[in-house]
Amino acid sequence: MQSETLLERVRNRFNQTEPSGSDVDRLVVSIIKNLENILNHQQGSAMAMPDLGLPDFNSSRYGDGLENYRGMEGVIESCIRRYEPRCTNVHVTFEEQKDNTVSLSFKLNLSVVVDHKTVPLVFETVLGMDGRIFVEHA
User: Which residues form the domain of 76?
Assistant: First the structure.
């Protein structure tokens, strides 16, 4: 499995740069970039793929109930499964933040295959007040 997307490989070849770091490190960085890209697209903004991205959570009417967060988990999980094919066994869980009540945080547990071995990865996402999702390797 390639540790970089096609566009990353083309860009590196065009710039004649060699990627640095181990295969897993490069894969993690590439997945973070792609996850931030797909999760920050609003559904309906790409004519060729109208379901790319997430619905606008800021305009949705979510209550305080945990079932609403479960719905958001499912939407995020579905988006990752559809648009990040390097990731398998995707599981998204809402992470309650007692000290930060103005942003939403989710934990992404998933697997990738590197050199014919399944590698578990954990990412943390934060949906900020500005509506952008940030992804970090946990």
Answer: 6-137
